Amino acid sequence: CNMVFPIAGGNESKGYEVSNSIRLDDGSNSFLSKSFGSDGNRRTFTFSCWTKGQADSSAYHSLFTSGNDNPDTSIWFNPDEALRTNTYNSGSIHDVITNRVFRDPSAWYHIVVAYDTTQSTASNRVKIYVNGVQETSFSTSSYPDQNYETFINDASYTHRVGSHTSSAYAGDGYLCEVAFIDGTQYAASNFGEFDDNGVWIPKDFKNDVTFGSNGFYLEFKQTGTSADSSGIGADTSGNDNHFSVTSLAATDVTEDTCTNNFATMNPLESDRQQGGAATFAEGNLQITTSYVDANYQRYPQVYSTQAASSGKWYFEMKIADSDTDSAMGIHSPDNYSSDSTTNPYGGYATTSCIYTSRGAVRINDGNNTGHGTWSQNDIIGCALDIDNSKVYFHKNGTYIQSGDPAGNSGGQAIPSGYTYGFTVGADAASDSGIMQVNFGNPIHTISSGNTDGKYGNFEYAVPSGFYAVCTKRLAEFG
User: Fold this and answer.
1) Please, what is the end-to-end C-alpha distance for the chain in angstroms?
2) Distance between CA atoms of residues 315 and 317, nearest Å
3) Taking residues 218-227, what's their average pLDDT?
4) Is the pTM of this model over 0.70?
5) Is the Cβ–Cβ distance between 10 and 261 less than 8 Å?
């Protein structure tokens, strides 16, 4: 099983809390940008951010760049997900690429890239840190010449967070705690620390660093689209270096952060998509599936990055396309059989339960029908009660099977003693259209707005005692 769990960040933090992130989508080329009024220090600076979900091996994903493609200085992930920083000016000026790759779409990674080209030792001119540890193993380590002036902090060029001049190198996934320090080469320890369990976590650094004239700190606490203190790109460093936004809206400001990591769908689960295909967008929350090969008799399903062995959990899915051959529900990674070719829903034996667009509840490949079909813009909800071995489904807020999750009545019985995650996918031998999954950070507009008592943003009320699927709630109730 390829179930993925966070390797750094996103645990139940006992200290500094990060409240917001932004969600980038490379298909929309969403990003923040700013042109500075004057040059900063082009030799010495530090970029720091936390990022999650950039797991598309077919493209570059930019974190921070300045230039116009030629020339430019960039910090980005390669298509193989190695971390890279380089300057290009009619040829490579310098290029530093890690041997390590960062492919876990569920993990929040802390990235620090710190330049000081005045250093006499070449390897000290560019330092890269990931989750508090300095990278020392590189596939390429061509350092800039001493006193070389990069295009970062060059007022002649636009600076972009989450993209590049070329949309082919657009960022993807989530960013939070984005900071730029003009004039100082800082280490990762200025921005984070190891907790008692040895996990790298963020710390409150704002008053402990010197931002410099072009420095900025983006906390994403606002939802406006103007380049001011009320905008998504508001600079809270005190410099008022506010950023303009492109293809970003209030729905792209999320609670999914390095101190409270929310579930998304997992693009690494390709081995479970035999007979079909799935594409991922909008921070791995928008899924488009299609049926490919009838010989497998299996339709494409995708699975969540987080699962639980106890507790009560809630999520929603919106049908965003007129083709509604789709399904949503739960599965157990404990009992997955990749050899099954008779069950189109993944071969989970008795430990998968889905609600389909044709109005059926399916468990162990059996049908319980007559629960109403779906159409475009319908929102389907799933309330999983592992403690009482039941799962409940609703269509637009009305529970089927006489379900009352809060009252522990109705619903569908499921086997006990298993870990359960969440699944969405196709339900018929045709395109299943577009599904938008909501674990508490919707990519679609919510008209009402409901939390689990503290976290999440859902269209329909979360049943009493049920919770959004995120690391804080998993630590408390899972």
Assistant:
1) 20
2) 7
3) 98
4) yes
5) yes
